[in-house]
Structures are given as C-alpha cells and as structure tokens.
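Repro case for the chain-ordering regression, as requested:
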Amino acid sequence: MTDQSSQSQAETQKADAALVRDIADAVAERDIRWLARTLRRMHPADAADALETLPYDEFEEAVELLGEDLPSEILIELRDSYREGAVEMLPDQAVAQALDELDSDDATTILEDLEEDRRERILEDLAPVDRAELERSLAYEEETAGRLMQTEFVAVPEFWSVGETIDHARGLGAELPETFYEIYVVDPAHRLLGIVPLAALLRQPRDVKLEDIMHDPTTTLTPDLDQEDVAFQFQKYSLASAPVTDHANRLVGMITVDDMVDVIQEEHSEDLLALSNVSSADASDTVFETVKARVPWLAVNLLTAFIASAIISVFEGAIEQLVALAILMPVVVALGGNAGSQGLAVAVRAIATRELDGASARRTILREVLAALINGLIIGAGVGLITVFWFNDLRLGIVIAAAMLATFLWAGLSGILVPLTLKRLGADPAVASSVFVLTLTDVMAFFTFLGLASLVLL
Amino acid sequence: MTDQSSQSQAETQKADAALVRDIADAVAERDIRWLARTLRRMHPADAADALETLPYDEFEEAVELLGEDLPSEILIELRDSYREGAVEMLPDQAVAQALDELDSDDATTILEDLEEDRRERILEDLAPVDRAELERSLAYEEETAGRLMQTEFVAVPEFWSVGETIDHARGLGAELPETFYEIYVVDPAHRLLGIVPLAALLRQPRDVKLEDIMHDPTTTLTPDLDQEDVAFQFQKYSLASAPVTDHANRLVGMITVDDMVDVIQEEHSEDLLALSNVSSADASDTVFETVKARVPWLAVNLLTAFIASAIISVFEGAIEQLVALAILMPVVVALGGNAGSQGLAVAVRAIATRELDGASARRTILREVLAALINGLIIGAGVGLITVFWFNDLRLGIVIAAAMLATFLWAGLSGILVPLTLKRLGADPAVASSVFVLTLTDVMAFFTFLGLASLVLL
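-- result from build under test --
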C-alpha cells in the first residue's frame, strides 16, 4: 500500500469515528428523524458498518428506536449476529415489511433468523404469492443453490426481438429486479433455452430475434446443488449471475456473484479455522461462544497428547539413563509436526480448488513423499550435526537424524493421505485432519526416536 | 451433496476422461484440424481444464502443434504454470495475436510471462495505440488495481439520453467490450460523473437523460490501490464491476468481479499456507519447488526447536530426578501449541475480513484472554486429574495444571498480539506469526512446567 492510500484510509477512519459519535448521540437523544435520514443517505453497507461500530446495547437501542424506519437494505448488510439481534428487536410488522421489500434470497435469510412460531405468524400476514415463494425457498436445504437463489429474474420467450424485450423491460420499470446482468430465454413451459447478457442485448439492432443471439447456459445449477459447487462454477466460468433450473430444466431462480463471493469467503474461513481446530469464530463472539468453539478440540487434543505420553513412558528407562533424550524429544516432534501441517495445508487447499481430482492425486502423493524424503535428509542432517556438536556423541546424532527422516516420511505421507481419505469418505478434509495427522506424527516421532535410541545407544 | 449430483459428477468425469484420451490421440496423430475445432467448440475454461489433464510433455506438444490456432481465450484460462509454459512454446506471432485479441488486463498477464527482450520485440510489432496502452498497464505495480483493470469500457457524456446511448452501443456492435455490466458517465475532460447499470438503462424510456438516472460511484479505486483493498470493496458493496480513476478523477479503467474472485482465492490460499509455514504451492509444482517452498521455514523451526531444547537442558537435573516430567512435557507443549494456533487462526481471519479495526481490537484481546483463562482452567484441571491418577502424585498434578493455565494465558495473548503487531508494522500477519507464537508458547510451556516442578517437587 502506498503512503497516500494509507493516509486517505486514516482520514476515512477519522470521519467514520465522528459519524459514529453523532449516531451514538442521536440514539441517546432519541432523535429518530435525524438517525433515519442519515442512515438512508449512506450506502447500506456503510450504514451497517457504522451501526456495528456502536457498543452492542446502543446498537439494540438504535434498532428499537428506528423500528420500521430501519431500511431493510441495511438490515441485510449487518453481520449475522447483529442481524439476528436486530430481527429479534424489531416488531412483527417491521419484519414483514422487510420481507416484502427484499429480494427472495435476502428475505429467506431474515426468515432463517426467526423462531418457528414467530416465522409462522409473520408469514401468515404476507400476500399469499410471496408467502408461497418464501416457503418454497425455505424448503431447500441450507447451503444449497435453492437457498441462495432469488426468484426475481427476467425471462422472455425466444421469438421476441431485442426491441420487444427492451420495451417489455421499460414497461415493467420498477417491477424489474433491482440488479440483473442477463435475460433468460424460456419456452412456454418455462424451460430454459438460452441466455442473453445485457451487454449483448445492447449491441444488437431492435429487430434481431433473441433466439439468434442467445448462448447456451454455461452451467447446470439445480436447487439441491451444494453452495461450494455453485461457487466453483462461478469462479471457473467467470460468471456474474447464473440461472437455476429444476430437474425438468424449468427456470426456478437466479444466483448472483455477490452471494458467491460471500460463500467463497465463508468456505475459506471454515477451512482455515478447521485446520487450527476452531469450530467457528465471529468478531462479535462472546467469551462463552469462544470457549465453546475451542474446548472440544482441546479435549480431543488432551487425549491424543496423553497417547504420546504413554509412548514416552514405555521408554522411561532409556530416558533415565540418557537425559539428552528428554532434551531432544521436542525437536523431533516440533519439526515432524511442522512438516505434517505443511503437507496438510497444501493438500486441503488443493482439494478445495479441485486440483487433486483423479490422476493428479497419485502424482501429488508421489511428490509429497519425495519432498518429505529430501526435506527429511536436509533437516535430519542439520539436527544430527547440531546434536553431535552439542552432546559430543556421534551415535546420538545418527539416531536423531534417522528418527527425523522416518518422522518426515510419515508426516508427508499422512499429510496427504489423511485429507484425501476423509474426502473420499465424504467428510470435510479440513475438519479432523489436523488432529489425525499431528497425533500420528507425534506418536511416530517419539516411537522412532526413543525406540532407535534404546536399540542403538543403551 | 446428494447422491444424484455425485452420480452426475462421476458421469461428467467419465466423459471428460474419454475426451482427454481423444485429445491425446489427436496430438499423437498430429491432427491439428480436429484438435483446433474441438477446443474451439468447448468453453475456454473447460478446454483449458482438458489440456491441463494431459501429461506435461503432451501438453507442450499440443501447444506447439496448434500455434496460432490455440484460441487466446483458452490460453488465458490455463493455470499460471501451464500458461507460462505455453507462452514460451508459442511463436512470437501467435503471442502478438493473443495480445491483440484479449482484453488489456488479460494481455498484461501474458506480457508478464515474457522475458524482457522477447516482450520488447513482441510489443514493437503491435499497433502503437495498443502498445502504449499495454506499456502503461505494465508500469503499475503488481497486485494493484492498475494491473487488474481493463482499459476497455463504455463511457458516454452526461447529456446523452437513454436512447442515444443504446443507439451508440448498437453502432459500435462488436467493438464494445465482450463483457460489461455498467456504463460510465464522464465530462469532456473524461472525469467520472456517475454510473448507470445496464439494468437501469433498460428500465428507462428512451428520452430520459443519463444524468438523471446515474448514481454516484460507490467506490474510489485508484490504479495504485492494493488488490486486497479492491477485493474488499467489491465484497462489501456487492459489485459486479467498478471504475478505476486517477488522482484527477479521470476514468482510466474498469475492474470486473471475476478477477476479484481470483484475488480473494489467492489471498486466502496465501493466508492458509503462510499459517502452516509454506511459502507457495501449486498443483503442478515439482518436487524441487515443493522442497524450496518448505525447507526455509523448517530451518527456522529447527533453530526455534533447539531454543526449546536449551530451556529443557537447564532443567536436566530435575528430569533426572523425576522422569515423569519428561513423560508429561509433550502434553503441556502440545495443548499450549494448539491453544496458540486456535487464537492465531481466529486473529488472522478477523484481520483479513477487517473485523479487528479500531475499537473492536481491544474488545477482542480481552475476549481472547478471558477465553484462554477459562480454557486453561478446564483443560488444566483435566490434565491435572489424569496426572494425579496416573502418577499417584497430587503435587505433580497441581504443578502441571498451573503450568497449563500459564501456558494457555500466554498462548492466548501472543496468538492475538503477535499478528496485530505484525499488521501495525505493515507486515503480513499470516506470515511468520505462526513461528513466533508457537516458539513463544513452547518456551513458556517448558519453562513454567519444569521451573514450577523444580521449585515445588524437588
């Protein structure tokens, strides 16, 4: 980043701080009109940011004050925990109004936040058409294309011309979805025939028929498709939006790229946290939520750590005779663990980006084992040399170098095979991989080092 | 994922395998016509996938055979390492043709792959206008908005009407950029006045003036802005594209969301790998590249591991007297390390998603310390109890529980403070954090456990 941009960033932050203070003052003075007007004038994402910067109790007060005057575009931009809190504070009528104003995918997100009976009550107050649509969306499983898609899109018959399509759009005016990048061409049974990007529509004379300029759908997204697969297709084909069709190829919805960017962020965060044994994390987590997300994995680790201790205790006699073993144990374990997590991170990333499908898996396993062999030889030699100079014991140096090499090979092999196996079994390769690999590596490290030492040195 | 979708996925993979065999056969038989026709008929992203599935020498052969018949859209869809290889194989004329056909951001990517003197030679053969444009793009630093933007966009004066704009677009026809989602409104000095999304253009009667329907730019992207900041704004404001302006607010380029999705993936991968001490990774890495990406960090870890050993050696006497200490050491270190990497992963993720700016940092530090205290009490009690039962020694149990608690507090504090400090110093918080935090935690773990044991037990 250049100096200039960080300077302007600092200025923006200062301005933001002043604004947040003004908002806090308005909440304290219960100045609803100023608050509503100011928020409405900001970009919803910026307004949501400003509200989230308030202490949580002031945030709740602001939401309570605003009620129906809280723009629904701001509500949907709030982080999960704040949005859930806001929905809880708002009266039923304000929630119903937000459901009415928002696109169906955003409305579904709000509905997900509601408790069962409150959801029923609010749904009953909606227009029957809207209600049926939202209930259909909610019927799809979470984290699928069905949940992410909006049911607002533009679909026209294939025999229409460019001119007719533009006139039709002008006629609908504000009834059109707020944001769309392409028009879907359908047959009378609402089956998807093709796609006309708006840029292509603009390029063509009025009398050209849509069927002559439409292109085949690049993707086949069905409502039950996992959101990760949807995001993968958006990235692969550089899409801004894509149609969702049911199993009879009938057009049922549209997914836009902004939702996919969120999915990609989410999946990445999950992988990163899972590899570090955290089950979930959010900036607004309480201490209790933080503990709950971490203690279970620490408890698992507690058990595996004692397995390692049990291995060491087998060699109690050897350690009593040669305390250097106790001094050097952590070196073998730390380096083996590091090699294991290196391989693991590479494997989890490659699985997530679909680089380990089919034939390339075998090549990757071979590469990891060879790399582990070379790393083991280099680092093993280094550890061996330091040990020889420190303890003035050639045999101890050879033992630790050999143990290092064996541990590296084992770490390299388990670092790639454990996540691949979990993936084949249908499990998430990021979750649990780390505990497996590191436990296996620890056990291997202690066993080879202490075992070899017992055989050779005593 | 449902059974049905994984079944259809398996079918797709089978079809792909057959296609890849056909492509390999065509390469062997030097059937250039079939090869070019088949690749051209596929989506460029699929064609690139198919080519990447070939063994690398067959891939090179295919590129050599095709030469100028390799569609430039496929070239740009290849993974970095394959694209670099292909550009090297292609004759100058084919590269020049690709530069001519591609949008400027993609053309810049190809130019980056070329060696200095070959780049000069090829640029000289281009039309002067194209050449000047590409040289300007290359002058921006890597990983900035200037490198990612394309100089092809649609800009019109504010006094134009909707109808005039559509007629203008029709007149340009194929000269328009392939993909765009919005039209930029500029003054005679080419300064950006506003944005009209294509969907908004479509909604309006022909005689409406653009100045009446344009909205203010949501973002201010300058060519020198870091790509991570650009991606953050795309995500925050749910953008499909955004204008880039120079410091005089003159419109100089356009960035589209597909490039931002790639940036987000890239930055995430970097964080994930950096936290696991891998400097880079690619599916097509050779064994040598893999070793080169990992050995330096292992060497750093080797030194820090011996620091931990040095701490242990200070307590040599204590271990000789009580071998249970050697048996239990790994438990304290493993759990402390786990707690440290949990906190670290949460902090690195929160920094990446800008959740740790300003006031929330203090709150987060407090939360991490409190969570560490509670986790330390719970896990410390567990470890203490197991120790008491195993070694039948109450005092040893109390010592290890106390050491556990101290280590957790230390791990929690360093897990959040180290990445935050690196960030404030302008360094990447993911890189090096892990080595710092885990070394600090290891040292603390050995020191408190062995130190307390020496004081209390001996």
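Ordering looks correct now. The longest helix of chain A spans residues 359-391.
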